[in-house]
Design a protein that fits this description.
It comes from Pseudoduganella plicata. This protein has two helices and seven strands. It has 104 residues and is an alpha/beta fold. It has one domain. A hairpin with a 6-residue loop joins β3 and β4.
């Protein structure tokens, strides 16, 4: 098991609303908890993954997600069981859309 942490500063889209949980923890899948949090305009993402050694891939997927959404004051927690980058991006987008009802 590996734990990764990412923080992106100067987001422009603050979140509001109740925390949302999407996805399931299962082989090739993941769950994403997204919630508003007072982080000074930052977005923090914590990843717990069963796939050890893919930090560079996670960094690229998280940077792409942040570039797409520019979230501010948001905390995201991910429990991963070996999801592909495409599934990770899908679940992250699904989590944001569930909370905001919008598109990037």
């Amino acid at each position: 098991m590996e734990t990764l942490h990412y923080r992106f500063e100067q987001g422009t889209r603050p979140l509001a609303g109740q925390p949302q949980l999407v996805g399931v923890v299962g082989s090739g899948n993941l769950e994403v908890l997204i919630e508003a949090a007072p982080l000074g305009g930052a977005c923090e993402i914590d990843v717990r993954t069963a796939a050890v050694g893919f930090g560079a891939t996670w960094q690229a997927v998280m940077a792409d997600f942040h570039a797409r959404w520019q979230l501010a004051d948001a905390r995201i927690s991910i429990n991963d069981m070996g999801a592909t980058p495409a599934v990770v991006s899908l679940r992250l987008d699904q989590a944001v859309e569930t909370l905001t009802g919008g598109t990037p």
